[in-house]
Amino acid sequence: xxxxxxxxxxxxxxxxxxxxxxxxxxxxxxxxxxxxxxxxxxxxxxxxxxxxxxxxxxxxxxxxxxxxxxxxxxxxxxxxxxxxxxxxxxxxxxxxxxxxxxxxxxxxxxxxxxxxxxxxxxxxxxxxxxxxxxxxxxxxxxxxxxxxxxxxxxxxxxxxxxxxxxxxxxxxxxxxxxxxxxxxxxxxxxxxxxxxxxxxxxxxxxxxxxxxxxxxxxxxxxxxxxxxxxxxxxxxxxxxxxxxxxxxxxxxxxxxxxxxxxxxxxxxxxxxxxxxxxxxxxxxxxxxxxxxxxxxxxxxxxxxxxxxxxxxxxxxxxxxxxxxxxxxxxxxxxxxxxxxxxxxxxxxxxxxxxxxxxxxxxxxxxxxxxxxxxxxxxxxxxxxxxxxxxxxxxxxxxxxxxxxxxx
Length: 407
Description:
By secondary structure, the protein is an alpha+beta fold. It folds into two domains: 5-43 and 127-354, no CATH class; 46-118, Arc Repressor Mutant, subunit A, CATH 1.10.10. Helices cover 50% and strands 12% of the residues. It has helices spanning 17-23, 39-47, 49-62, 71-76, 78-81, 87-93, 119-134, 136-148, 157-162, 164-167, 173-176, 210-222, 242-253, 271-287, 295-299, 302-305, 313-317, 351-406, and strands at 5-6, 35-36, 68-70, 98-104, 111-117, 154-156, 185-189, 195-199, 292-294, 322-325, 332-335, 339-340, 343-344. Strands 3-5-4 form a three-stranded antiparallel β-sheet. A three-stranded antiparallel β-sheet has the order 6-8-7. A three-stranded antiparallel β-sheet has the order 9-11-10. α7 runs antiparallel to α18 (351-406). The radius of gyration is 29 Å and the shape is globular. Mean pLDDT is 84; it is low at 1-26 and 399-407. Residues 37-364 form the PORR domain. This is Plant organelle RNA recognition domain-containing protein.
């Protein structure tokens, strides 16, 4: 057993992996690889924890009528927001996000503390709206791609709204963006859970995956045709059994199946379907802001993207392509090739929206540190004054006997 290795799923020394695979078409899901912790990729998730907590609180206030909320109401929602500290502590640590004031909930009620977003935060939100407008073509392309990969090119509107944060869609994209592109999108059905977004027209420009684009770029650069294929690389110290290495080698040699191909005729347990499933996950993660998505969120799309019930085993079976982090008690699928250490290599233009907020949080932290520094200095000054006062009193007490003696 290697250090930091957790046995999520284990290989058996006596498991005839290749034999099982060649004898049964249902054996792909039985191929198992031990899971090894990747500290760098876990750190990438850890770095965003404070930002995500702040974003949840901000959105909670923004969703309120007039974007104001009684302080105590927000405190009651702290558990749902997974805020690890009291709201009062959070506001004190982030003095630049909100204005605190007193008002009445009802005309004759007592004054209570309220929160509203600050003018500084408003300016950041306005700047973010400009980022959305500047990157609207990218957002439309992402949304088309999500529909083009799905079965019958239709996805539940509720599910798309649920993943808007992962892909960088505006909060109100279904109302503000979708109606402006009738050539691409059509809303069908009505009611909660029964509204769907349907693709109107197929755009061949969008029907090319990141893998295929990369192969085209390499072909143009080298002057010879390069086959589309996955970048498969494990971090140092990772162990995979010989039989599994052989299976992966043979699997990698098989033709790439685009996530945009019609695979309705493929057997769910076939090698081709496995290739296609990996391709879909690779494309979904590539389209996401941070090149990672929580596994439970991906699980909501099993029907739309034809994932099997055991789909999460793909991330450990293909550990050279993906990493499944357990950070924070949530399984998160990550794209290995998208990171160098704990840093993203190619940043999505829509990340500018998060960067604006992160800069604001940093400004708030600096302001808070300055306030604490001034408070500490004030206490030290007071203590010095007290000590000087005590020192003067002692000098006076000493001098009195000398004066009496001299007289």
